[in-house]
Amino acid sequence: MRVLAAMSGGVDSAVAAARAVEAGHDVVGVHLALSRMPGTLRTGSRGCCTIEDSRDAYRACDLLGIPFYVWDFSERFQEDVVQDFIDEYAAGRTPNPCMRCNERIKFAALLEKAVALGFDAVCTGHYAKVITDADGNRELHRAADWAKDQSYVLGVLTHEQLQHAMFPLAETPSKAEVRAEAERRGLSVANKPDSHDICFIPDGDTAGWLAEKIEMQPGDIVDETGAKVGDHAGANSFTVGQRRGLKLGRPAADGKPRFVLEIRPKENTVVVGPQALLAVEEIRGIRISWAGLPIAEVATGEEFPCHAQVRAHGDAVPARARVEDVDGAAQLVVTLEEAMRGVAPGQTIVLYQGSRVLGQATIDKARSLQRVEL
């Protein structure tokens, strides 16, 4: 097969490309330039997609003896990921930019271009597995190493995209083994630290970064009863579940910390309360997509058992889900058998059955049995 290897400059993508070459595929490496500010270099393990990363990707391809290219996707990235991030925060939601990047850049824009150029598959260093069923349909599953599993951030992949997805690290039992393999192969990135944080906010100061992009207006912080307990400099810089940085002048009656329960952008109000009120038992999601062919219950509207996960490294909890028609639009309704805390509109909920990823939706509303709808 002709395989396009997406080379981030990290150890995972380098080893994935090496395995694709070793398997006999015709491999070409490509690094995505996602920023028009290439002078920024990595600081420790923060950020990614820098000049340093592109050089590391080139060195890996040179060692493997495969062609290497840099594709400029910076405009698409700015519009589909960065601006989406800003817009979602401005609307009082908490987005996941890595989900949007996988959805719109790495497995939409990149795959579209790859297929147009005659490639059969896009290979990445994600820890996830694609399984083909008896009828030849492809399913997305968790990786062998559940501690490193990245199927959550790939939950946005569609049936068509899975036909062209290749994840050579799927069966690797640990990240330590990947690093050891990179060392054996002579790859210079063998001990390169993993990247963390949002790539376009490498210093990790999301609130400070947003303050430069969104016009912040001071407003009230109220408790769950509606009583004012403090002031804020801009509601858009808060997120559900946040405890630090509230700077409340009026302590809670029980003396315990308060947490952000809700953000109301139209009123420019932040609602806080005790940690217990963060518990959510029902989630409603919009912008649904299915990873592979949807299960039969999706079409019939019947409820089906599943596990639900709302964070990349969070636990999946048992749940039941169904698809409803609400004013002509499909809405995913998930009833949790174990309450989750800190669920925020804008986050992504991914559904599983066993190790299989069923699909995902963007959280629109959450409901707590102890509170009115958020």
Description of the structure:
Residues 148-150 are annotated as: Interaction with tRNA. Belongs to the MnmA/TRMU family. Pfam families: tRNA_Me_trans, tRNA_Me_trans_C, tRNA_Me_trans_M. Catalyzes the 2-thiolation of uridine at the wobble position (U34) of tRNA, leading to the formation of s(2)U34. GO terms for molecular function: tRNA-uridine 2-sulfurtransferase activity. This protein has 374 residues and is of the alpha/beta class. The protein folds into three domains: 2-125 and 168-185, Rossmann fold (3-Layer(aba) Sandwich); 215-270, no CATH class; 278-367, Translation factors (Elongation Factor Tu (Ef-tu), domain 3), CATH 2.40.30.10. 24% of the residues lie in helices and 29% in strands. The chain is built from eight helices and 17 strands. The chain has helices spanning 11-22, 51-64, 74-90, 97-116, 159-162, 175-185, 206-211, 296-300, and strands at residues 2-6, 26-33, 68-72, 121-123, 128-132, 138-142, 165-166, 219-222, 228-232, 259-264, 269-273, 280-290, 304-309, 317-326, 329-340, 348-353, 356-367. Strands 12-15-14-13-16-17 form a six-stranded antiparallel beta barrel. Helix 1 (11-22) packs parallel to helix 2 (51-64) and helix 3 packs antiparallel against helix 4. The longest helix is centred in the N-terminal third of the chain and has 20 residues, at 97-116. The chain is globular and about 65 Å long. The N and C termini lie far apart (49 Å).
